[in-house]
Design goal:
Number of strands: 0
Shape: extended
Helix content: 55-70%
Largest sheet: none
Strand content: under 5%
Distance between the termini: 45 Å
Order of helices and strands: HHHHH
Amino acid sequence: MLTGFEKIVEERIRNAQAKGVFDNLEGAGKPLNLSQDQHIPEDLRLPYKILKNADCLPPELELKKEIRRTEDLLACMPDTAERYTLLKKLNFLIMKVNTLRQGNARFDIPQRYLAGVSDRLASKRDSTPE
């Protein structure tokens, strides 16, 4: 849900797009150069560069990768008891990511519940020819 200010901004952006204000911008169609670090505070540039070169991710991104892996495992798992255990792990990981984030609750990742999974399993069993 957009606030009043966000609606005004979105409307102005749409109007500018319709008028062609964003056409022929410098660098249009070229990839962004994200290697520049002007947006990073000067005292954090060296540690960030060391972590980047070591292929280290922030804890939140590591947890999100683990959530995706767990969701993939959950989608392929046939046993309901194991699915329930994995679903509890998934909900714990999601809760952990949501508590790490220092922002608005509306950006939290929703937890997965067994009822939705059970419904999907039942529909797959019914549609699978034996």
